[in-house]
Automatic annotation (TrEMBL):
It holds the Pfam family LacAB_rpiB. Keywords: Isomerase. GO terms for biological process: carbohydrate metabolic process. This is Ribose-5-phosphate isomerase. NCBIfam families: PRK05571.1, rpiB, rpiB_lacA_lacB. D-ribulose 5-phosphate binds at residues 8-9, 66-70, 99, 109, 132, 136. It comes from Sphingomonas guangdongensis. The lineage of its organism: Bacteria, Pseudomonadati, Pseudomonadota, Alphaproteobacteria, Sphingomonadales. The active site is at residues 65, 98.
Amino acid sequence: MRLALAADHAAYDLKQQLAEWLRTVGHEVLDLGTHGESRVDYPDFGYRLAAAIAAGEAERGIALCGSGIGISIAVNRDPECRCALVSEPLSAALAREHNDANVLALGARLIGVDLAKACVTAFLSTGFAGDRHTARVAKLGAPAFAGEAA
């Protein structure tokens, strides 16, 4: 699978570790930065990741910042992206199964590399359940539906 990764300076080390691990397990990694520990702004990298997903440059994405919160907000500004901030594998699996999330967000200051790998594994190995979730997921990318009752 082709995966896009993006991080700010707080998550640079975790991004590097995940990118190396993902390559060793057979994935293609599109590294969208940052490429060092110098201070950068997480929205820039969240927007870059969202654009890559929306353009079809990667099947799924992994967004990282110190808490995972800011970068996930940035990614979710693009209606083609469904970014889920998680801190354990069950939420990562449910984000795929129920919400068809195409981007996973992780907080580098909140979880270690082993837990991050477990979350990524769950995210990549879980499929979308479809069925009753399909119409709900469609509403996530089409805010015009927000005021309508089912």
